[in-house]
LysR family transcriptional regulator (Thalassospira tepidiphila MCCC 1A03514), 327 residues
Amino acid sequence: MDRAAEMEIFVHAVEEGSFSAAARTMRLSPSAVSKYISRLEDRLGARLLMRTTRQLSLTEEGRAFYERARTILNEIEEAEEVVTQLYAAPRGTLRINASVAFTKMQVVPLIPEFLARYPDVRIELTLDDKFTDLVNDGYDLAIRLSALEDSSLIARKYAVNRRMIVASPEYLEKNGIPRKPQDLENHNCLHLSSRESFNDWHFETPDGHVAFRAQGSFSANDGDVLHEAVLAGLGMARLAEYLVHEDIRTGRLTPVLTEYVHDQAWISAVYPHKRHLSPKVRAFVDFLAEKFTPVPPWELGFRDARAVRRNSDGTTDTSKTARDVGK
């Protein structure tokens, strides 16, 4: 038995006045209580209690030990109560690591509502498109737009992150519309320098899988910057649907090669431990689920813009896509 348990048995015996009463409280036998207290006295090398058939009385050493033991047990109870309260209601600092563009556009606008709902929570947000070691770097959770590579982590999936190749109508009028993936060789395809793998554009064609390496006159380390460059007519880029859905709906951008692009990944909240998940983490994970499922907000009212119609020649065409530019 550990020292805290020995202290607890001793304190109960003193406060309840007998071994038998302490035994009932601790769900032990009176002989077991007597044995533990004798063991405690032997370990300390001092008699703590004077025993008679009617009562227990403290020795001088016993009183000094009792007062200190009572204080220690109170502190243990308070420590346990603090943890219990933390699990009872979301509170404390929530450290989040998240991808840059998605978080700026889709998560940050939701944070005021979350903090109003949970006023005892404080959020510390770090934006980073690189993979982060959540445990070693001290993060409670991460928001990721890619496959989960660490099997020790838990992922709560919310929505599919669809990527599409887009350009401005002005760029397409000036440079032409690519009809097949090979046509991209004649276009200015903007480059994301922070993640090289992002620049491998993948297509499914009747002849099989085709990969194209995006290269052009402009590169940036941030998806938001590529978005702005495409809007300015600089070239075409592969961007996420959540980033360009409104631009497509209003005609500022046009998707191309839609019948060939099948590029998507899950948007997920990722956290280290499933067991004893703290209330602040659980609250935020559930809050995002409330906002992003079953249909994420960037898809509401946008499905018609992605609706595919069958042409008379058997090809497919997305409504208001590149085929309509210049008509």
User: Anything to note?
Assistant: The CA atoms of residues 161 and 265 lie 5 Å apart. The chain is about 40% helix and 25% strand.
